[in-house]
Amino acid sequence: MTTVFRRSLFASTAVGLLAGPALAQELTVWAWDPNFNGAAMEAAAAAYQEAGHPDFVLDYQEFAREEIEQKLQTQLAAGTMDGLPDIVLIEDYSAQKFLLSFPGAFQPLTDVIDYSGFADYKVALATVDGETYSMPFDSGVTGLFYRSDLIEQAGFTAEDMQDLTWDRFIEIGEAVTEATGTPMISLDIDDPGLFVVMLQSTGSWFFNEDGSLNIEGNEDFRAALADYQQILQSDMWKPVNSWAEYQASLAGDVASTVTGVWITGTIKAAEMPGQWAVAPIPRVEEAANGTNYSNLGGSSWYVLNSSDDKELVYDFLNTVWGSDVDFYQDILVGQGAVGSLLAAREGDAYQTSDDYFGGQPVWQDFSSWLGQVPAVDYGIFTYEVRSAIASNLPALADGGDLDEAIGNIAAEAAVLTQ
Amino acid sequence: MAQTRLGRNENAAGWAFVMPALALIGLFMIYPILWSLWMSFQTGRGMNTTFGGFGNIQRLFADPIFLTALGNTLIFLAIQVPIMIMLALVFAVMLNNPRLKGRGLFRTAIFLPAVTSLVAYSILFKSIFSNEGLATQVVAFFGGPQIAWLAEPFWAKVVIILAITWRWTGYNMIFYLAALQNIDRSIYEAARIDGVPARAQFFRITIPMLKPVILFTTIISTIGTLQLFDEVQNITQGGPSNATLTLSQYIYNLTFRFMPSFGYAATVSYVIVVLVAVLSTVQFWVARDRR
Amino acid sequence: MTDVAATEIDREAARPTSRAAVRPPRGPDRDRIGPVVTYVVLSLAAFLSVFPFFWMVVGTTNTSFDIVRGKSWFGDQLLVNIRNLAEQVDLPRVLFNSFYIAIISTVATLLVSSLAGYAFEIFRHKWRERIFAALLLMLSIPFAALMVPLFVMMAGAGLINTYAAIILPTVANIFVIFYFRQATKAFPHELRDAAKIDGLKEWQIFLRVYMPVMRSTYAAATIIVFTLTWNNYLWPLIVLQTNDMKTMVLTISSLNSAYTPDFGVIMVATVITTLPTLVIFFLLQRLFVQGMLGSVK
């Protein structure tokens, strides 16, 4: 493989100028999913080794996502960076919180990475005061993954699953649940992820531009929550208690799920080829700018300021993550990771159709939906507001008053974001 | 002269023996708790804090999540501790019967949960009470309804209470068992001859004789429950919808999960200190000798 | 003496039957709970206490899927689960960390805290009761209140991600000091007086007389402290930063909160985590019961 030549001009220049006597060619990286972002990082290390850096060693350390955030937060708050890695994966929802709470902890990469080659919204998420801090990684563009066989059994076609509203989705869902005995979706009542997806699809978010709460009086928020309450009150969902149970439910217990593209690996792990298909998600009809596109999760790599070999970090990031289109094809096929490098979307893997999804060109679909995801500013308090929402969902499921719930959410969120 | 020198030597030895412990306690408890007290008057995000007076205390009373966590913690306390103490007492009295066959076996079996790691047993309980897990199947087998144990606020609390009771009943029982063996059996003999029924013996002899131990275990259990963290963190993560969120967990969230709010977290932690102090005083008062 | 005791037991054993023959066992002076009830209650309690252990062992032989679905009989996945665990976790390293921390903590805690407990009981000083009362008051301080300042202190001392950071704050354990003070009430003062006449210094008395005499107290404290430190969760979770410093308990917690938790693997890790405390308990069990007896007089 002549990956050397695929190195970006910028990176080679940087290396040419800065290549000193190479010391330890080792970088420590923290990530949380051994089959997804961890595996992608290991694939990147392999690609870098092949690109003329045989001595490069990646020390991949795996922690749960919450553990990573906790460790970062503890250390940075205590004013030390002793045990921190060179590169850390941070979920997009938390990016602003870390960047704003701990100025100086992360290395700005504005002068190192050519951000024009990446999806705009990913860049915006990691930008504070004109400096951008991330190497954008995966997108959480959402889709409606459904069991084509069960939908058909209930008398619906692939056509029926396109351009849905949530009202129509619930109608279909109840029909499917009744006809097949398989619930339409599985929900963890403690995880408002689906609601978050619905809200972003309207182009609205929890906060105003100035960072103040935008919950009470937010018509989009109300419309999305009204649809979500309808789902909660329907008979088409199966409760799950944890992420593990949710994942397990996809292996035959439910007829569909609405979530980020990163779930593809899990769905394929169920080994039900030809029985799945993907459509754009339903839209919130009452919202002024309701779309069928949204995002859930997604994350990026950040460089800690304490890293003692930043040149190596820059070269590694630029060589592989910043320009290696083939690498992006590999992690798409291998890990189902939809990267944020625009050029990569022209690669072969993105064009292929997938037999698992009945020959649908799923990656192409996701790529085109990705361009239509309404961009929102996640702000610094996403998890606080999510927590406030979660604590009011059971009341909504029991038929509680929508506006009262919104008032409670706003009150709790106000305290948490104080 | 010899007397005073001896006294001085003893004094020196006494201080020398106590010093390592006192120094460590001073460094790792007193100093941080005072620091924490100072922090509880600071407001702000992350490390950027300023003196906020009683702002954090005002925030407490307007904070629905704090009130939820406080309520949950007190519910766990009010329901779990009495159940556990009663069960432990009953088991201890039963096991104290010298004619009972297999005492050692029963005692060991009931104590066994106390050696498990909190995290390990929490995960065991989580798997037993998973949606289609063993507990659901057992209930279904006996014709009970389908219960989403960890998805319904009420049942999630029940699971946490069951879990703590499982872990700590045997532990408390051992204290009572040890204390019971120190009670002179002739007291019971005399009571029996006087025609005092078993139940009355339990309430009029056993409980009063065990009062110091019961008080001690009640206070230790109260402190433990007020600090409850490992179990909820590993079984429910505080959910569903904060139905099992405890004060310690809220402090953890305020410090490590949310935008760090160290001052406010310190204020919440002082709520636990105050609660323990108040409840211990009440328990001492209730258990005082009424003469 | 023995004969008297034997007669006593015989008499007691004989009584219920003879009385039952005289009148129904419903009389107001029924002196104990019916034996059937006792056996049923204790058997049920013992079963419920032991069942999760059985569940844990069964779980090691099943797939994650089967465990979540409540399969409660042995499967054939044991080797697969062990292999998966060994692949995901550096077991020797993690076990070393756990043992190292637990053993050093236990030895240090027993030494420092028993020394203090002993001294509080033996030596009289006008401040004694006041200091002791202050210590008991401090039992009520929740760890959550100390967590952040402690972390900042450890960071300042450059001790983040070290064994010392885990061990140091646990060494002076107020509960253990209290426990030893209670137990020392039963320590015969004549022994100390005799040792002093023999010319032993205070520390020699402690090491050569007190410690051997109180070995059952130490055994009970060993079980309690070892279990406590082996199972310590929140503080190591905060202070230990890298995977090569992780303990078994942290490993289980990570496996549990992993993106796709595998309960089969977790069960194997749980068994490994539980074994050492079980073994110590069974080894010291006899002494443990004696030690507990001494503490609650």
From TrEMBL, chain A:
<dbReference type="GO" id="GO:0042597">
    <property type="term" value="C:periplasmic space"/>
</dbReference>
<dbReference type="Pfam" id="PF13416">
    <property type="entry name" value="SBP_bac_8"/>
</dbReference>
<feature type="signal peptide">
    <location>
        <begin position="1"/>
        <end position="24"/>
    </location>
</feature>
<keyword id="KW-0732">Signal</keyword>
<dbReference type="InterPro" id="IPR050490">
    <property type="entry name" value="Bact_solute-bd_prot1"/>
</dbReference>
<dbReference type="InterPro" id="IPR006059">
    <property type="entry name" value="SBP"/>
</dbReference>
<comment type="similarity">
    <text>Belongs to the bacterial solute-binding protein 1 family.</text>
</comment>
<protein>
    <submittedName>
        <fullName>Lactose-binding protein</fullName>
    </submittedName>
</protein>
From TrEMBL, chain B:
<dbReference type="InterPro" id="IPR000515">
    <property type="entry name" value="MetI-like"/>
</dbReference>
<dbReference type="GO" id="GO:0005886">
    <property type="term" value="C:plasma membrane"/>
</dbReference>
<feature type="transmembrane region" description="Helical">
    <location>
        <begin position="105"/>
        <end position="124"/>
    </location>
</feature>
<feature type="transmembrane region" description="Helical">
    <location>
        <begin position="154"/>
        <end position="178"/>
    </location>
</feature>
<comment type="similarity">
    <text>Belongs to the binding-protein-dependent transport system permease family.</text>
</comment>
<keyword id="KW-0472">Membrane</keyword>
<feature type="transmembrane region" description="Helical">
    <location>
        <begin position="209"/>
        <end position="229"/>
    </location>
</feature>
<dbReference type="GO" id="GO:0055085">
    <property type="term" value="P:transmembrane transport"/>
</dbReference>
<keyword id="KW-0812">Transmembrane</keyword>
<keyword id="KW-1003">Cell membrane</keyword>
<feature type="domain" description="ABC transmembrane type-1">
    <location>
        <begin position="70"/>
        <end position="283"/>
    </location>
</feature>
<keyword id="KW-0813">Transport</keyword>
<dbReference type="InterPro" id="IPR051393">
    <property type="entry name" value="ABC_transporter_permease"/>
</dbReference>
<keyword id="KW-1133">Transmembrane helix</keyword>
<feature type="transmembrane region" description="Helical">
    <location>
        <begin position="12"/>
        <end position="38"/>
    </location>
</feature>
<feature type="transmembrane region" description="Helical">
    <location>
        <begin position="262"/>
        <end position="286"/>
    </location>
</feature>
<dbReference type="Pfam" id="PF00528">
    <property type="entry name" value="BPD_transp_1"/>
</dbReference>
<dbReference type="InterPro" id="IPR035906">
    <property type="entry name" value="MetI-like_sf"/>
</dbReference>
<protein>
    <submittedName>
        <fullName>Lactose ABC transporter membrane protein</fullName>
    </submittedName>
</protein>
<feature type="transmembrane region" description="Helical">
    <location>
        <begin position="74"/>
        <end position="93"/>
    </location>
</feature>
